Amino acid sequence: MGRIPSFFHEGMMMALIDDVLPVFTFRERHALPIRAPDGAIMQCVSRYRARHDPLVRLAITMREKPARLLGLSQRRMLDLDDFTLLGRVGDREVVMGLTGAFWRLDYGLLDIASRADFMACQRTDVCRLAMGFAVEPAHAGHSLLVTETRVFCPTSAMRRRFAPYWYLIRPVSGLIRRRMLAAIRKQAEHPAR
Q: Strand locations in 90-190, DSSP E?
């Protein structure tokens, strides 16, 4: 399939992410049509792991290598398992979140156990990130899977700290999101593979 025009997904409803992080400083959004039932698509979203894609694994490994070389991190590669589930609406939408100082070599992640913890975080030295997936009817038997990432920086100082990191990683982040959507589509449309 070709590229989806931006108007196809810019106006889509992502009510849950709007509830979880209605005010945000940075945003990235991607979409892909998938010919599969909504439930199958959301199952594939739940099963997706970055470590299964060699290019995505390489990108994340390179991002994390300085922290490992300097002994600042011994954790496994950052993946969806590190996100906290912030909510799910049936087979239509799911939102996950992280809280941290993402520009730091070790991401500066905080332990966030629940949606309430995520929303109640008032710290001004970290940012909150919400990543959502929504499935909407599209055209001719297709659904449109949209992923949106939002980052909220609580102060102008945090915005200044986060912005260079955002603009540096955004091209790679976009590539990762597009590959994620493609992998989910492949799995949802051809579950036996």
A: 93-100, 127-137, 143-152
DSSP designation for 121:
-
| pLDDT confidence of residue 193 | 61
On whether the pTM is more than 0.70, the answer is yes
Token digits for 109?
């992640």
Question: What's the rounded Cα separation, in Å, for the pair 49 and 56?
Answer: 10
Can you tell me the mean pLDDT for 154-178? 95
What distance in Å separates the CA atoms of residue 85 and residue 37, rounded to the nearest whole number? 22
Greatest Cα pair distance, the chain, in angstroms, is 52
Q: What is the rounded CA–CA span in Å between residue 143 and residue 63?
A: 33
Distance CA 60, CA 51 (A): 9
For residues 112 and 129, the answer to whether their CB atoms sit within 8 Å is no
Q: Are 51 and 179 in contact (CB under 8 A)?
A: no
Q: Which amino acid is at 107?
A: Y
CA atoms within 13 A on the CB side of 175: 12
The first and second tokens of residue 7, run together, are 């108007």
Q: How far apart are CA 26 and CA 24, in angstroms?
A: 6
